Each structure stands twice: as structure tokens, then as C-alpha cells.
Amino acid sequence: MQTRTETLASLYQDGFFDIPSYQRSYSWEEPQLEDLIDDLRYLPEESNHFFGNIILDKKDEQYQTDRGRRFDVYDVVDGQQRLTTALILLHVAAQFDDVVDETVSEDNLIFPVDERPRLMPQDQDGEFFRDSLFGTASLECETPSQERLEYAKEYFESEFEDLPVREISERLRYDCKINVVEIDSDSEAASIFESLNDRGKPLSSLDKTKSFLMYMDDRSSNRGALETKIKQRFGSIYRELFVLSNGHDRVSDFDEDSVQRFHWGIYDGYDSDEYFNSLDTLKDRLREGYRNGEYDAVQQEIDEYTQNLREAASVFAALFNPSQRPDEVEFALNRLLSLGRVANVLPVLMAAQMEYGDDEPDKMADIVRACETLVFRVYATDGRRADTGRGKLVRLAHSIHSDDSYLFEDVLSRLDSITRIYTDDDRFERNLRDPEFYDSMSSQDIRYLLHHYGEQLGVDMHEEAQPDLERILSTDFEVEHILARELDEEHIPENLREDFEDNIHRLGNLTIASSYWNKSLSDLPFTEKKNAEGRREKEYKSSVLRVQQILATYEQFGRDEIEEREQQIIDFALDEWGIASEPQPSGGSSTDEGSDDVEYDSLPDSFFRRLTNRQEAFIRVLLEENDWIVNQEIRQRMENEYDLSSGGSRAVSGILSGFTRKYSNGFTWNLVNYRTTGRGTEYRLNPDSGYIEELRERLVPSTEES
Questions:
Q1: Quick one: DSSP state of residue 116?
Q2: CB 321 within 8 A of CB 248
Q3: Which of 166, 281, 512, 653 has its CB surrounded by the most CB atoms within 10 Å?
Q4: Any idea where the GmrSD restriction endonucleases N-terminal domain is (predicted)?
């Protein structure tokens, strides 16, 4: 090992510098770039700035040009971030100042030969660095590190508009002193780099993993048998994880280490210590295998792990690019991602994307919807801790990935079971009935619920008047109290005057309003909101929101209306985010689901498993009647015979909307007929559907069973 001290300019003239494969990608961002500029700006005259240690590994073979020129080549073991940034700064400075350009060119600091610059980043970034950042090509960024390299160049270009470029360039070249350490071998280089990582260098777990695997591959095989695979796979991983910069907004909740953690659960199962320290566990296994002389096993583990991690990065990227998924998956993913709190279900979604993905979009969409139900019930409505159910969900992800006998139906049944453990129907309903509901959930979650309820109202009325979910969850909209929180006593309904405060925050008294509407009109009495004289565009009837429009149909709004509306929304929620009453096997045929164009010769595979309590009771009533039956009687029998709340007049249409959302509009109307008579709306099971015998066989107990 040799040491020397020299300036940055003299170091660059020593030869070429390569970033080895075990190194991390370029990681400097604005704070580090700003610190470098400040150091150079405020360096006292005739003073030197210590630029840090640079550890180099001199290669045996020199770089030789076509004309016979030879250059020493060094692998940069430590210091690559500083050397890379300094070269970018000099390149930009040369574009701003002709004298800098001339002196840098005379010293051959940046391009001593035409085919490559002094320094080359590792595999996946080399072409971008040479041809786009330092050349004339216009290559799109494909990795986060390429984006950071481009940002560094743009940052210096912006700063040099107002700074003394020549002075800063000269200070960097001649006044920055570097302690250069040369080491003797590849194995020493990898070992030193790993030691630097362990002493707290700000590296991601993914960066450390790559360097460690390169190191262990070199030790357990002849000349790194897996080196090419590891390079290629990590190159692909970094490209896939560019989604962290350009994917769905919700991806900002995660980073490279999150992806590696989710993968470990899929790959190895769940142990709470290992889940958050997967690299340490991997190191222990590979080191133990190496110490025991099990070199083939070490090689196999490296091969399997990197291949699996590469696939995990790919499916993570797929989930956060919903617009590139099949329509039904895109729709389901956008709903779930808008809801948030997806960290615990992401391993399940990643494993499911590996297993079903774009090839079986109906199954994938069903799993996404089941995850949405779990997240909405357990975390949003019930307010459970962020780690609730984590172990169960990660173990499920591992089963999906590693157990060939684990069926699609098992996945959905297990998701329903986990949801039921923490927030069963009774608890879900109690949460929705909380007299302080307004304060028990976030504004975004309440708007999420009421938005989807509004969509169901639009389905019932065969119209679409609803802004999209993204807008509803933005600052453009707020939760509105239908009966304002501070009403003069004369405007409080008579049957609420004694306990007005106990009812004002109930779900039935909440709706959505635009922020402007809420600020200007929310404190008005109900009658003035319903009919805003001289301001038709402000009244409920003219609202663009169906959950406001429907309020114009109420003659008055008091205790009975709050209770009726609350029941209607709860009935909707129990259908929309429903779980099977008990785990059930699937029935029916293998017909595809989820499209208006699908024709079902028999019931969809998941029909019986996905029945909610209310849907099942509804069908049982129709089977028992075996003829037309009026809305009111259906609701009364559901209450009397199945102990389910009767709900309001829209309860049945909510049940039917649930079938439409799960399957298709055509399926719903093929399943159930309806007609309007003098008695009201009547329903029956469609005798021509071909479903009745299958329904009766599965849902109506035989005489012997009775």
C-alpha cells in the first residue's frame, strides 16, 4: 500500500479512472453540490483545501489507444463521488470561460483521448456519462443515478451564471489537496470497500449488497464466475428503480431500501429482525457457507438472490406505473394508491404481480381490490397501527411466491381472513357509526369514502357527474357538514335541539364540497343550501358532486334523515369493501371476469367467495320467493330473517351496484330483473340467466341438512 499527496489536476493526469462494479452509483444531490461550491468560493487566498482520501487500485493492464498511446488505469475504491463531481464541474466551467476551456484542454484533464473521458462510471451509467453528459447525444435518463448526474451538470450551469467561474475552477484544480492511497489487489479493494461501508458511509442497503455480492463471488469462485450476471442484474435493478423518480406520486413513500426489504419478505419469509436487516442475514449465510467450504452453495445463493431481486424490482416498478397495466388492474391500482398506507400490502402485491401480473389481469385486479379493502378497513377506518398485520401479510407474500400449491382462491381467502381478524363487519360498522366520525378519520379518508358512495349514486341514476378521485382528494375539496356545526337554534331541527352536538359529526351529516363552496356557504341553514336564491350555481341541486346533488331531494334534514343517510352509506361501504362472511372455496366455471363484454355461461369463479353478507341474504330472499318481490319486503325480510339492517330505500340498488363493480353491468342485469309498479320497484332472479340452479345448490340448505 502506497500513499502520496497531490492536487486534483495532477491526479487526473496520472491516467484513467474507472468506477468498479462493486461500487455504488452516483449519489450526490443538491446539498453535497452546494457544499462543494461553498468550499471553493470561500477558500481563503493562498490556502489549500483538503479534498479527502482517494483510494485507488492500479490495474495490471494499461489502456492503449489505436495510435499506441498508453495510460495507467485505476479502479476508484473510495472517492468516486468527489472525483466524478469535480470532473463535471470542470466540464461545465470550460463551457462558461474560454480561458478555463483552453487550460483544461492543454492539460488533457477531461478528454485525453476521443473515445473516453478521464473517469468512467460503472456499467449502467457509462454510456450516458460519456455520450450525453460530456458529449452531444440526447439520451433519456434510465436510472436514478443518471438523473443525479444530469442534475449536477444543470446545478453547476445555473450557479455559474453568477459566480467567478475561472477562480472556482483554478481553486478546484490547484488548491484542493488529495491524499492518494494505492492498494495492491482486487480482493483487498473489495474488502476495503466493504469495511468503509460498515463504518457508516452513507450508502443504501442496495449499494452495500451489490459490493458484498461481488466480493463474495470473487472469493468463492475462480475469477468471479457470476460477475457478469451480478453487473447486468444490478444494472437492470437500478433502471427499474428509476420509477422512484418518475412513477406514481405515491412512490415517494419508498426508497431503494424499501424495495429490498419487501423483496426479502417475498424471498425468505418473515422474521421481524431479519425483515429490517436483510443484508446482515444474507451476509451471515454467505460467510458461513464460505467458511464451511460450501463454495457451490454460496454461488447458487448469489445467483438465486440477484435473479429474484431483479424480478422484484421489475414488479415494484410495474405497480407504480398503473397506466401501463391492463385496464382493470390500472383502475384498481389507482384506487389503492390514492388511498395510501400500502407498505404492508406491497409484498403481497409484488408477489401477486410476479405470479399473475399482466397475463392474468382479472386475478391481479381482484387481489388489488382485496388489499384496498384491508387497507381501508384496518388502517383508514379503524386507525390501526402502521405495523398491524405486517407479519401475516409478508408471510402470505412468501407463500404466493414459493408455494406452488397456494392457489389464487387461497390468496383472496387469506386477505379476507386477515381483514376479518382486525376489522370484521361488526367493528367496521361500529367505526362508521361513531358519533364523532368526523374526528375519527382524516379528511382525505372521509372524502375517499364519500367519493365512491357518490359514484354508486351516479350508477343508480345512470349518470356520471363526479370529478375524478385525484381531484376529490386534492385541496380543491373538503368535508362539509350538511347541518352546519354552528347553527342558530332557530335553524336546528326540533328533534335534534337537545342533542345536536351528539349528531353533528355523524357520517350521515357529512358530504363533500368544493373548498370555495365550503368556505362561503357551509354555515348556512340546510334550506338555504338546498335553494340558494339568486345563486343557483351554489345550491345543492346544481352541484357537480352527486353526494351534494342528492341532498336536494330531501324536504328537510334532521335526525331521521341523518340516520337514514348514514345507514345508506354504511350499507354501501359493507358492499364496496366487503369480505366473505367465512372463508369459502370458489365455485362456478373458469369464465373470465371483470368486463362489460364478458358473457357468463355460469357464475364467475369467485362469485360465492366474494359475496358479502347483504348480497348473500338478498339472493336467498329472491330464491325463497321465486317470483317478483317488492323492495320494501326484501329489506324487511333481510332484517327479520338474517338480522341485517334494512337500510334506506336505496339499499337494494346499493347491493346491485356492488355486483356491477365486481363483474359488469351486463352481469348484474342478467342476474336480477327489476320493474317499477304501483307498489314500488320489484325484483326477481332472472329465470333465463342459467344461474338459478347453481345459486340454489350453493345457498339453499337441502331438506336433509335442515
A1: B
A2: yes
A3: 512
A4: 9-213
